[in-house]
Design goal:
This protein is mainly α. Helices cover 70% and strands 3% of the residues. It has 13 helices and 2 strands, in the order ααααααββααααααα. Strand 1 and strand 2 form a beta hairpin. Helix 1 runs antiparallel to helix 2, helix 7 runs antiparallel to helix 10 and helix 7 packs antiparallel against helix 13. The N and C termini lie far apart (44 Å).
């Protein structure tokens, strides 16, 4: 069964790369091969598709500067509670774990401080942010309104190519779901939401959403872990994709707001507070 899962994962990644590159004929042919049962473990490829499948952005984009890579590693540690809310970040120990010097580490902590995931306190240094439930609730409310507006605009403004990109990201998310990799699933999920925001063409909306979403990065990931009906989240995303493809602005707007609304229910359970905070 593990071999089948690995094969299916690679198939979904391949399908996503075809869609992203506008290779619709290859995508259809590839689907036919999969359906016909010609897929074998270790050979999820076709001669025409190999170049598209190995593009740099299939692996997360071009190699980032060291500071950003360090920030990404620390961000992953925070969202997975390897560094817990309120915990002091010990620079020497962390630099040894990440195998980097203190200079890029400190620059990375400044980036995370700007995002709201870390606080840099006088005489104490960097501490993992620990927002109050009411603050989280308020920001989730605002985020729901922002995503709702973004959906309304994106349904009208998005190009066919941009919609194809969202579809490709959806395939990548499904691949992570198949592997039961929660962190990669969450990152693909976030890419989908950012892509829809980008389609809104509203820079003020995109900037505001980016800032607030960064502050909620950890709680959104942790709420994802508490999603006992993971399949239902997949179905919600499929509905969102279909509404975008149909350019149904009202439905897309409502779906995105409802999608964010369910997050607070899981977060409030995690924090042990009332869902009507």
């Amino acid at each position: 069964m593990k071999g089948f899962d690995n094969c299916l994962y690679r198939a979904m990644r391949k399908a996503g790369s075809y869609i992203r590159n506008g290779m619709q004929n290859e995508f259809v042919a590839f689907g036919a091969l999969c359906y016909a049962g010609f897929m074998t473990e270790g050979s999820v490829s076709t001669a025409q598709g190999d170049q598209a499948a190995t593009r740099p952005d299939d692996a997360g984009g071009p190699r980032l500067p060291l500071t950003q890579r360090v920030a990404g590693a620390i961000r992953d540690m925070i969202v997975q509670d390897q560094l817990k809310p309120g915990e002091r970040i010990r620079e020497r120990a962390l630099s040894e774990v990440l195998k980097v010097s203190r200079t890029p580490l400190r620059e990375a902590l400044k980036l995370l401080s700007a995002e709201g995931l870390v606080e840099i306190l006088p005489h104490r240094g960097a501490v993992v942010a620990n927002p109050e439930p009411q603050e989280i609730y308020g920001k989730l409310q605002v985020l729901g309104v922002l995503e709702s507006l973004a959906g309304e605009l994106a349904a009208v403004q998005a190009t066919d190519e941009e919609i194809s990109e969202v579809r490709a990201l959806h395939f990548e998310m499904l691949a992570s779901y198949t592997r039961k990799n929660r962190l990669e699933y969450f990152k693909a999920n976030q890419k989908i939401h950012r892509a829809i925001l980008s389609c809104s063409r509203n820079e003020a909306l995109i900037e505001t959403h980016s800032r607030i979403n960064a502050q909620l990065y950890r709680v959104r990931y942790q709420s994802n872990l508490r999603n006992r009906k993971w399949q239902s989240a997949i179905e919600e995303h499929e509905d969102i994709l279909h509404a975008l493809e149909a350019r149904d602005s009202g439905r897309l707007s409502a779906l995105l707001r409802a999608h964010l609304g369910s997050t607070w229910a899981k977060v409030s359970e995690m924090l042990g507070v009332s869902g009507s905070e």
